[in-house]
Structure to design on (63 residues):
């Protein structure tokens, strides 16, 4: 996988687990990409809509 493409703007689909907030799921992904792929710390990432913490499901994440 080429991680440089994440800087150009991508849509990622994440299966958000139960009891995680959307913010927590995005933060875990952000720090995983920063630490594993060597992306810059000011890497922008965010979700396209909030899921309830008591719901699991598909979360759209945009870079």
């Amino acid at each position: 996988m080429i991680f440089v493409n994440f800087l150009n703007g991508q849509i990622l689909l994440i299966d958000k687990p139960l009891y995680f907030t959307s913010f927590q799921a995005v933060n875990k992904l952000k720090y995983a990409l920063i630490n594993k792929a060597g992306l810059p710390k000011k890497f922008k990432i965010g979700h396209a809509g909030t899921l309830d913490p008591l719901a699991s499901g598909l979360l759209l994440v945009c870079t």
About this structure: The longest strand covers residues 11-16. The CA atoms of residues 29 and 45 lie 9 Å apart.
